[in-house]
């Protein structure tokens, strides 16, 4: 009895080790298979990135700091001590006094100065005691000394948001790391790398007049290679998701290239358009929109492909004898649910970012179709549609690639396992010693 119990424990142990070896073999073979496809794409991305890297004889145009003060004026930071609504200082004699909101502000604990706050700030949020603000100090300008026009000596500029935004960033990092742990930390570091590519390659290349479509494709591909492998590790799942992401990226770029021209998206409706044209040489505003359409869908596209690739692998490992058709069908049921929820995510994310424009357009007395196709909203609508098309088409492609990889490598692993079982049977038939047989 005791021998039988010990033999059963040995069978369970051998079965567990055999399954583990089989699964590791599947993953290794899948990584090798996908590397033959992804490695040339990675090399091509790096070569194109090096070829288009900003610099050389065509330097990026430089502009002055838009928040710099004029000669004789200065920008200072202080804390509001008290506020009051009173007659505006320096009102002309004999004229009705107008009312101004004054924030008495101290710089480094010094004397209070009366900072005039504009009415739009008061209506939007207001200024309260304890707020840290920046203001324009005009008291040293010629003609501003004395009591000639004291009401315009100190003018409110902006709030100092370093502390609350820093706290939010720290809380975000803590929450992500606490829940996702090491992978969450890697994702945050990868996000920093993605913004580095955006700041050091994509934006300067656009400013120098490089082809926007190539800049978007090369920069986005570099971001996806780095972010996915750094956050999720080198595995068959990640490589499958990356391949699906690159496919969706190509579809999005193609659709965006057509849509920008067909929908006549000029980029001139934004208030920064003419300033961009004056600061850059040869940059196309419509090209900037094209690049933005490609980049804006990267995060959601990555999310969908990673989830879909993982779903295929988990389904296969739970039921390795499932047929290719059944495995694809089961994974697509998950994909369809993800598509439905993600399409809503894209639409509401863009609607939230464009809420002021939506509100302004809704106040106009015009038909709904005219509003949606107006210059103010057309870019957002096209961004939603283009991003959603690339996202939806990436799901079946990612699923098909994942199923093909996992089934092809899984068959070879199953054949190796079957050959091992047959060897064990032959050994049991030719020896009197008991042989542990893996079950199943």
From TrEMBL:
Keywords of this entry: Membrane, Transmembrane, Transmembrane helix
Region of interest (Disordered), ranges: 416-440
UniProt keyword Transmembrane present: yes
Membrane-spanning segments: 30-53, 159-180, 187-207, 213-234, 241-260, 280-301, 342-364, 384-406
InterPro entries: YibE_F (IPR012507)
Protein name per its UniProtKB record: YibE/F family protein
């Amino acid at each position: 009895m005791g021998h039988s119990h010990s033999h059963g424990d040995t069978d369970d142990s051998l079965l567990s080790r055999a399954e583990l070896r089989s699964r590791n073999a599947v993953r290794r073979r899948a990584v090798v298979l996908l590397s033959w496809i992804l490695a040339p794409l990675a090399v091509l991305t790096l070569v194109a990135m090096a070829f288009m890297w900003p610099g050389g004889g065509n330097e990026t145009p430089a502009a002055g700091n838009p928040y710099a003060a004029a000669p004789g004026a200065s920008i200072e930071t202080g804390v509001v001590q008290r506020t009051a609504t009173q007659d505006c200082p320096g009102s002309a004699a004999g004229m009705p006094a107008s009312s101004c909101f004054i924030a008495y502000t101290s710089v480094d604990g010094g004397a209070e100065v009366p900072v005039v706050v504009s009415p739009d700030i008061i209506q939007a949020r207001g200024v309260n005691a304890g707020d840290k603000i920046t203001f324009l100090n005009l008291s040293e300008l010629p003609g501003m000394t004395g009591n000639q026009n004291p009401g315009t000596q100190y003018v409110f500029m902006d709030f100092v948001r370093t502390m609350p935004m820093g706290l939010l960033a720290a809380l975000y990092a803590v929450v992500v790391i606490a829940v996702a742990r090491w992978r969450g930390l890697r994702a945050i570091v990868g996000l920093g790398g993605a913004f580095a590519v955006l700041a050091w390659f994509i934006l300067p290349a656009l400013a120098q007049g490089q082809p926007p479509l190539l800049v978007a494709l090369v920069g986005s591909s570099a971001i996806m290679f780095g972010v996915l492998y750094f956050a999720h590790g080198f595995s068959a799942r990640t490589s499958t998701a990356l391949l699906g992401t690159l496919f969706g990226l190509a579809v999005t770029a193609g659709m965006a290239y057509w849509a920008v021209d067909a929908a006549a998206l000029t980029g001139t409706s934004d208030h920064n358009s003419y300033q961009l044209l004056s600061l850059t040489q040869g940059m196309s505003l419509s090209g900037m929109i094209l690049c933005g359409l490609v980049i804006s869908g990267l995060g959601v596209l990555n999310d969908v492909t990673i989830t879909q690739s993982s779903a295929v692998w988990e389904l296969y490992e739970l039921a390795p004898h499932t047929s290719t058709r059944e495995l694809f069908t089961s994974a697509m049921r998950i994909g369809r649910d993800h598509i439905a929820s993600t399409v809503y995510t894209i639409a509401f994310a863009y609607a939230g970012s464009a809420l002021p424009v939506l509100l302004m357009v809704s106040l106009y007395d015009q038909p709904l179709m005219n509003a949606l196709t107006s210059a103010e909203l057309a870019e957002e609508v096209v961004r939603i549609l283009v991003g959603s098309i690339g996202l939806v088409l990436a799901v079946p492609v990612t699923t098909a690639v994942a199923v093909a990889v996992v089934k092809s490598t899984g068959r070879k692993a199953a054949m190796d396992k079957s050959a091992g079982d047959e060897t064990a049977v032959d050994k049991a038939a030719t020896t009197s010693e008991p042989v542990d047989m893996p079950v199943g």
